[in-house]
């Protein structure tokens, strides 16, 4: 099938990723709704703030334009309970001068004639002199809002004075003005009644009014302009956090790496994220303005719609590119909320500083403004401040699109306009976006790989020729040279032969047409990790994970890489797929080198990878995964549906095609990963433990798929299942400690590295007693088993490895091979005599081969690293033995009875992590005479502390031959 390439492929990948982002948003409805509609809630809160402020300022005209002030006329004396914080029982007013009959009459008239509310006598208290009033007020604080003091000078002159509590107090946001509320009504009442009394006309009246000056609003307040920056920043933070966590999650789950392996272009990746998020941002900004208009804010009604929309849209777009940039530094998606919260707190504080006037003022240098404007929340704060002050009163016209470049009339020292803010927002958007791409390239990915710091200065980066050079370690790594790898020739003859063939072909520049992959001395060394402390750079020592591998993988064949955990299998695959750069050597895949970026981009188009851990989006179904990966791979769009259906059918996932992969079982996920690896008919497939977690039936089914997939392609398989390797592999190599230890077909490995042949002898069931069974055979008893054991011992000198009452298992060494034909012929003749029901003879299992190789490797490295473990002997003492050693002599065990000393055979098994551990040991036996005596030495104190003396390893061949 012809795969797409170049620009059409970028377009196809972009469309597929855009669709993926849309599906993910749709499947995360709650987050998407928050991102789009949270503005409704926050604008409602601003609305509440505005209402509260309006009610607080209802008694003052400072915030209003007053063109035609109204006169305050005929204010009645209010009940004392109206005064804020008054103590009850209280008095509407106190008065002095009660010794005068005229004064008493005047006060009675004041009480009687109070407009709308005659004052009862118990709400007024009389005193003789002002001093008495003062004394009373002092001992009864807050019991009356005011006092009148009358003095009758003569029959035509009555003077008066007023005392009020003039302290302005506020309660629940509203302020009390004692002058207008209490002083003026008392003054009007006193003057009116004194005049009536002196004139003698109780109807004498006049109208008196108090008026403030006409004035423009002395102070301005816009709820949106003041509270808006924080609230709109909070709205933007939803999108910010979701965006960061989506990007980081794709990195963390290696989804991005999986897409890159399939040939994803970075440009398609970034563009698809940007387009989708810009679309959501567009909607969120639109809703913010519409909700604001719905709540009838002057801010939203009087400023031009396009001016407002552009402020919100550009601000949120800025936050988006800022999120892209921040995501390069965060490696865990769970940290997204913490990062978002920190940005919000910082934004809140810097906005506060911005609203105080810093640095958008003549007094500050432009440098401050440039630095300050890089952080998007600050620009938002200034924009809302400008738009708010342009609509602070109902008469302000707001900022129209045409006047966006002008300063609002109130801003006398304005140094920035809305138009300038647009320019800033657009520039900072590009700054953050470019930095996002730059940091994404130079900060190490999950595999510790990054581009060089000045990668963009290399002309080859722009021409596409080898511009994808990558390095390992952080940009601030302290450099330390990596120690060279000692070049030791392989000890195994098959591995040596393979190496010689590959070296020969490499030297001649031959490419065998049957070879799909040629690995030429591949080495991989992981540089140690850095710790920089107190001007000191500490680096853990480098680790040689692959130590020079030379091997060919043939076409149409499955090559199986076996090895204990940490052997270097995944590292080899990672080097071949370009996930991690090789340290030394090279590998050619269908003639393309993994060391060049042009070679790697050709390789990506012809490989399929099933990684060790499922790399899937929980929210996407099996079908959606296949559609996405097929598009990234470049399959023609018309074929994708059919190919996906076929792949799903092959891995038996048709019924679950539309189910989200998050609900798949472990086995279903592995099958989907296999289907993804095989999509697009790749010529080279890497399957890293593809059947992990599958039940036996499904596993067999996947084996069928892999078997069928061999045709026309090369497959590299790593597995811990020896059965799988045995069934599927054409060739097997066992790796340990970064080196190939053996290579060949399964039969060759078994015959070379197995301990020999396995004979299983089964007996007729003895539970039936001694009566002949339906076949006329007599059931076996213990005697028959003993006879057979003796027969094996006499003829072949072997003891059973396993036994129970119905079968015996013997391991027959290779050296007895020539005796076997006659031996088994005789055994078969005597079947009925021994009550034998069945005899099976086979080669040692691959598992045994694997364990032997792993043990040998452990032994080598133990010797190199002096890696000793303690063996507790059944005699009660302990010795230390090198990991993996089979026969170990016990130091100091020589005696007259055992002149050569004693030894044990140690049995090994793999623990859950694949490491070797002791499963038991044989009884202590004499060291055979052919074994060279080894000088025993007295254990040192250190050895005893460490678990006993160190046992000496005895060559297995010497022991087996000596028996
Ligand atoms: N990025 C890394 N940095 C440092 N060491 C690493 C890194 N990746 C792998 N290693 C080390 O390299 C060695 C080989 O690891 P690798 O994953 O290739 O083993 P493997 O044979 O695939 O094992 P398994 O069967 O457990 O998957 C291990 O000791 C591992 O700890």
From TrEMBL:
<keyword id="KW-0547">Nucleotide-binding</keyword>
<dbReference type="InterPro" id="IPR003439">
    <property type="entry name" value="ABC_transporter-like_ATP-bd"/>
</dbReference>
<comment type="similarity">
    <text>Belongs to the ABC transporter superfamily. ABCA family. CPR flippase (TC 3.A.1.211) subfamily.</text>
</comment>
<feature type="transmembrane region" description="Helical">
    <location>
        <begin position="269"/>
        <end position="295"/>
    </location>
</feature>
<dbReference type="GO" id="GO:0140359">
    <property type="term" value="F:ABC-type transporter activity"/>
</dbReference>
<dbReference type="InterPro" id="IPR026082">
    <property type="entry name" value="ABCA"/>
</dbReference>
<dbReference type="Pfam" id="PF25158">
    <property type="entry name" value="ABCA11_C"/>
</dbReference>
<dbReference type="GO" id="GO:0016887">
    <property type="term" value="F:ATP hydrolysis activity"/>
</dbReference>
<keyword id="KW-0067">ATP-binding</keyword>
<dbReference type="Pfam" id="PF12698">
    <property type="entry name" value="ABC2_membrane_3"/>
</dbReference>
<dbReference type="InterPro" id="IPR003593">
    <property type="entry name" value="AAA+_ATPase"/>
</dbReference>
<dbReference type="InterPro" id="IPR017871">
    <property type="entry name" value="ABC_transporter-like_CS"/>
</dbReference>
<feature type="transmembrane region" description="Helical">
    <location>
        <begin position="231"/>
        <end position="249"/>
    </location>
</feature>
<feature type="transmembrane region" description="Helical">
    <location>
        <begin position="336"/>
        <end position="358"/>
    </location>
</feature>
<feature type="transmembrane region" description="Helical">
    <location>
        <begin position="421"/>
        <end position="439"/>
    </location>
</feature>
<keyword id="KW-0472">Membrane</keyword>
<keyword id="KW-1133">Transmembrane helix</keyword>
<feature type="transmembrane region" description="Helical">
    <location>
        <begin position="307"/>
        <end position="330"/>
    </location>
</feature>
<keyword id="KW-0813">Transport</keyword>
<protein>
    <recommendedName>
        <fullName>ABC transporter domain-containing protein</fullName>
    </recommendedName>
</protein>
<dbReference type="Pfam" id="PF00005">
    <property type="entry name" value="ABC_tran"/>
</dbReference>
<keyword id="KW-0812">Transmembrane</keyword>
<feature type="domain" description="ABC transporter">
    <location>
        <begin position="517"/>
        <end position="762"/>
    </location>
</feature>
<dbReference type="GO" id="GO:0005524">
    <property type="term" value="F:ATP binding"/>
</dbReference>
<dbReference type="InterPro" id="IPR056788">
    <property type="entry name" value="ABCA2/9/11_C"/>
</dbReference>
<dbReference type="GO" id="GO:0005319">
    <property type="term" value="F:lipid transporter activity"/>
</dbReference>
<feature type="region of interest" description="Disordered">
    <location>
        <begin position="921"/>
        <end position="948"/>
    </location>
</feature>
<feature type="transmembrane region" description="Helical">
    <location>
        <begin position="32"/>
        <end position="49"/>
    </location>
</feature>
<dbReference type="GO" id="GO:0016020">
    <property type="term" value="C:membrane"/>
</dbReference>
<dbReference type="InterPro" id="IPR013525">
    <property type="entry name" value="ABC2_TM"/>
</dbReference>
């Amino acid at each position: 099938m012809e795969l797409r390439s170049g620009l059409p492929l970028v377009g196809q990948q972009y469309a597929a990723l855009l669709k993926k982002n849309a599906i993910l948003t749709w499947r995360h409805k709650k987050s998407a709704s928050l991102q789009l509609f949270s503005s409704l809630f926050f604008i409602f809160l601003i609305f509440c703030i505005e209402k509260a402020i309006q009610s607080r300022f209802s008694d003052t005209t400072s915030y209003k334009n007053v063109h035609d002030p109204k006169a305050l006329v005929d204010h009645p004396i209010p009940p004392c309970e109206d005064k804020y914080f008054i103590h009850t029982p209280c008095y509407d007013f106190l008065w002095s001068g009660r010794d005068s009959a005229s004064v008493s009459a005047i006060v009675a008239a004041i009480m009687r004639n109070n407009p709308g509310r005659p004052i009862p006598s118990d709400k007024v208290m009389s005193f003789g002199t002002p001093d008495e009033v003062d004394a009373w007020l002092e001992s009864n604080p807050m019991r009356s809002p005011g006092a009148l003091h009358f003095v009758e000078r003569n029959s035509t002159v009555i003077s008066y004075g007023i005392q009020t509590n003039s302290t302005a107090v506020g309660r629940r946001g509203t302020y009390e003005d004692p002058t207008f509320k209490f002083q003026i009504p008392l003054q009007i009442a006193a003057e009116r009644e004194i005049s009536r009394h002196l004139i003698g006309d109780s109807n004498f009246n006049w109208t008196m009014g108090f008026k403030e000056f006409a004035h423009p609003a002395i102070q301005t307040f816009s709820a949106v302009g003041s509270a808006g920056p924080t609230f709109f920043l909070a709205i933007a933070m939803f999108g910010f956090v979701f965006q960061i966590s989506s990007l980081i999650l794709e990195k963390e789950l290696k989804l991005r790496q999986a897409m890159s392996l399939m040939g994803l272009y970075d440009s398609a990746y970034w563009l698809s994220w940007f387009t989708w998020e810009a679309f959501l941002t567009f909607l969120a900004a639109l809703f913010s303005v519409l909700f604001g208009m719905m709540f009838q804010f002057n801010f939203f009604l009087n400023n031009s719609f396009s001016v407002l929309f552009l402020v919100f849209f550009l601000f949120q777009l800025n936050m988006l590119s800022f999120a892209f940039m921040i995501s390069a530094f965060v490696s865990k998606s769970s940290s997204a909320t913490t990062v978002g919260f920190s940005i919000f707190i910082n934004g809140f504080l810097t906005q506060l500083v911005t609203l105080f006037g810093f640095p958008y003022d003549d007094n500050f240098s432009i440098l401050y403004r440039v630095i300050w404007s890089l952080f998007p929340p600050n620009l938002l704060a200034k924009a809302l401040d400008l738009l708010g002050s342009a609509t602070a009163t109902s008469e302000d016209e707001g900022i129209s699109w045409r006047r966006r470049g002008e300063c609002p009339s109130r801003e006398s020292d304005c140094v920035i306009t809305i138009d300038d803010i647009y320019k800033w927002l657009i520039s900072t958007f590009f700054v953050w976006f470019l930095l996002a791409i730059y940091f994404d390239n130079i900060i190490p990915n999950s595999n510790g790989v990054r581009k060089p710091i000045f990668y963009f200065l290399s002309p080859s980066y722009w021409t596409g020729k080898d511009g994808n050079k990558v390095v390992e370690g952080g940009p601030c790594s302290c450099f330390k040279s990596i120690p060279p790898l000692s070049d030791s020739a392989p000890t195994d003859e098959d591995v040596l032969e393979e190496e010689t063939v590959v070296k020969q072909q490499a030297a001649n520049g031959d490419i065998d047409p049957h070879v799909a992959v040629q690995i030429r001395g591949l080495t991989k060394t992981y540089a140690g990790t850095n710790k920089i402390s107190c001007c000191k750079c500490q680096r853990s020592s480098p680790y040689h994970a692959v130590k020079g591998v030379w091997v060919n993988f043939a076409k149409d064949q499955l090559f199986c890489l076996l090895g204990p955990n940490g052997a270097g299998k995944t590292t080899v695959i990672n080097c071949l797929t370009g996930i991690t750069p090789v340290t030394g050597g090279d590998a050619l895949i269908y003639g393309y080198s993994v060391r060049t970026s042009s070679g790697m981009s050709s390789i990506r188009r012809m490989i399929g990878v099933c990684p060790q851990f499922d790399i899937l989006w929980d929210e996407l179904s099996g079908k959606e995964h296949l559609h996405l990966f097929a598009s990234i791979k470049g399959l023609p769009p018309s074929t994708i549906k059919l190919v996906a259906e076929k792949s799903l059918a092959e891995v038996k996932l048709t019924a679950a095609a539309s189910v989200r992969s998050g609900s798949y079982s472990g086995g279903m996920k592995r099958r989907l990963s296999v289907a993804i690896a095989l999509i697009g008919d790749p010529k080279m497939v890497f399957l890293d433990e593809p059947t992990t977690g599958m039940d036996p039936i499904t596993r067999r089914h996947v084996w069928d798929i892999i078997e069928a997939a061999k045709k026309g392609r090369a497959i590299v398989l790593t597995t811990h299942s020896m059965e799988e390797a045995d069934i599927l592999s054409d060739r097997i190599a066992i790796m340990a400690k970064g080196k190939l230890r053996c290579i060949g077909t399964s039969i060759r490995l078994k015959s070379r590295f197995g301990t020999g042949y396995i004979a299983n002898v089964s007996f007729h069931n003895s539970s039936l007693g001694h009566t002949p069974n339906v076949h006329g055979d007599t059931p076996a008893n213990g005697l028959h088993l003993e006879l057979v054991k003796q027969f094996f011992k006499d003829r072949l000198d072997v003891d059973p490895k396993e036994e129970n009452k119905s079968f015996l298992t013997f391991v027959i060494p290779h050296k007895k091979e020539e005796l076997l034909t006659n031996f088994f012929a005789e055994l078969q003749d005597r079947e009925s005599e021994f009550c034998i029901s069945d005899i099976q003879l086979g080669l040692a299992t691959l598992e045994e081969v694997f364990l032997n190789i792993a043990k040998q490797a452990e032994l080598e490295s133990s010797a190199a690293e002096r890696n000793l473990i303690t063996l507790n002997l059944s005699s009660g003492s302990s010795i230390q033995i090198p990991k993996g050693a089979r026969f170990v002599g016990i130091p100091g065990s020589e005696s007259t009875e055992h002149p050569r000393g004693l030894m044990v055979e140690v049995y090994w098994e793999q623990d859950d992590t694949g490491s070797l551990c002791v499963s038991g040991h044989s009884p202590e036996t004499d060291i055979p005479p052919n074994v060279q005596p080894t000088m025993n030495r007295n254990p040192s104190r250190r050895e005893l502390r460490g678990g006993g003396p160190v046992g000496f390893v005895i060559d297995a061949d010497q022991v087996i031959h000596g028996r």
